[in-house]
Amino acid sequence: MNLNTNTNIIESIEIDRVIAIREHAISLYKESLSKAAEAIEIIKTIPNTNNHFPHQCIEDDLIDLQYPRNTNDDDDRTRFELWLDRKIWQMFIDKSGIKTIMSNKQIEKLQYDLYNMKSPVFNLENASCTFTSLSVNRADSFKNGLMDVLQSVSWDYKSNNPRCLGKK
């Protein structure tokens, strides 16, 4: 083997350039950690969110940076944004008391709608529209909830005919 050839086994690397890139990357990363810590503190001020921070969705967002999700949706929210919107919707739904007039079936549908990937962005327009609609339709929700309960009653007894309201 001739060691005096011009072909190098190891490519020449600009060490100064690599060190500068490393330092810049570390600086940006520390800055992003500082911003994440600030976001955590801000989230803790939202009432009834259990002061829980979504470590898994942040990890998934970081993975998405390298391997973007293959979606054809117009919804380009990060997993963190989806998590935060869902938490805020859940808090407002719980605080509104709307679940008290809903059946378990209706609550399950509400939860499903909230936790699928198409959950709405929490903003003033969406919140106003949603809660106005829920308020206007609360009598229907109560009636449907009552019907769901009656339909779930056992047919095993003569007096438990869920389709017949009135005297036994």
Describe this structure in words.
- The chain is mainly α and 168 residues long.
- The chain has a domain of 32 residues.
- Helices cover 58% and strands 0% of the residues.
- The protein is built from six helices and no strands.
- The longest helix has 29 residues.
- InterPro entries: DUF4942.
- This is DUF4942 domain-containing protein.
Topology:
Layout: H1 15-43, H2 55-66, H3 79-96, H4 104-115, H5 124-136, H6 138-151
User: Number of helical segments?
Assistant: 6
Mean pLDDT metric: 77
- The portion of residues forming beta strands comes to under 5%
Question: Mind telling me the C-alpha Rg?
Answer: 28 Å
Please count the beta strands (DSSP E, at least 2 residues each): 0
**Helices and strands: which structural class?**
mainly alpha
- Helical percentage: 55-70%
Task: Note the main sheet.
Answer: none
Concise overview:
This protein is an all-alpha fold. It has helices at residues 15-43, 55-66, 79-96, 104-115, 124-136, 138-151. The protein has a domain at 14-45.
What are the defining features of this structure?
168 residues, mainly alpha, DUF4942, 6 helices, DUF4942 domain-containing protein
